[in-house]
Amino acid sequence: MLINKYIDHTVLKADTTEKQIQQLCKEALEHQFYAICINGSYVPLAAQLLKGSDVKIAAVIGFPLGAMSTESKVFEAQQCIKDGATEIDMVINIGFLKDKKYDLIQQEITAIKKAIGNNLLKVIIETCLLTDDEKRKMCHIVIDSGAEYIKTSTGFNSNGATPEDLTLMLKEVQGKILVKAAGGVRDIQTAQDYINMGVMRLGTSSGVALMENSTINPSSY
C-alpha cells in the first residue's frame, strides 16, 4: 500500500510561519505525498518550492468557519488557483445547513466549482457538528454540485474523522464522489483502516510519522 499517495500533508494553524511551509514542502518532496494542504497566503511560496514536482497544492477557503459570503469564497478560490493551487478544500456554511437552506449551499459549492474549472474541489462538511441526517443530506448536495470530494472535517472543532462517519458517508455517496478523512489521522493503523474502508485521501499533519511507521519501501515510491 503506497500510503504516501493518499496523504494531503497539512499545516493550517493560525501561527504557521514561512519556515514551517518550507519544511512542509521539503517533507512532501522527500516522501512524495500526493499533496500539501495550506492556507491561501502561502500558496505562492509553495508553488515556488514545489515547481516541477508531482506534489499538488491544495488550498483551504472559507476556513475554518465557512460562514463568509459566497462571493468572498469564490474570489478566494480563484486567487488560490491563480497563485498555483490545483485543489481547493472549501468549508460549507454550516448555519445554512442547520436552517435547511439546501439550495444556497448547493449554489455556493457549484459557484466555486465553476470558478475553479477543471481543478479539484473538496467540500468540508464538519461532521462533528452535524446529525447523521445532515451528513446524509450533504452527501447528496455535494454529489449534485459537481464537486469531486466530500471531506469530514477542518480539524478545528471538537472532533475529526471517525470510522462511524466515514462508513455513513461512503455508503451514502456510493462511489459517485470520493471521500477525504481529515482530523485525528495520527497513526498508521487508523490511516490503513480508513484506506481499506474506501477513503481516497487523508488530511493529516502527521504524514512523516505515518511514513516512518509504515511498511513501505522508499524505493517503491
Question: What this model shows, in words?
Answer:
This protein has an eight-stranded parallel beta barrel with strand order 1-2-3-4-5-6-7-8, surrounded by seven helices. The protein has nine helices and eight strands. Residues 216-221 have low confidence and may be disordered. The longest helix has 15 residues, at 102-116. The protein has helices at residues 18-31, 43-49, 70-83, 94-98, 102-116, 132-145, 163-173, 188-197, 207-212, and strands at residues 7-10, 35-39, 56-61, 87-91, 120-124, 149-151, 178-182, 201-204. The chain has a single domain (3-220), classed as Alpha-Beta Barrel (TIM Barrel), CATH 3.20.20. α7 (163-173) links the parallel β6 and β7. The protein is globular. The protein has 221 residues and is α/β, with parallel strands linked by helices.
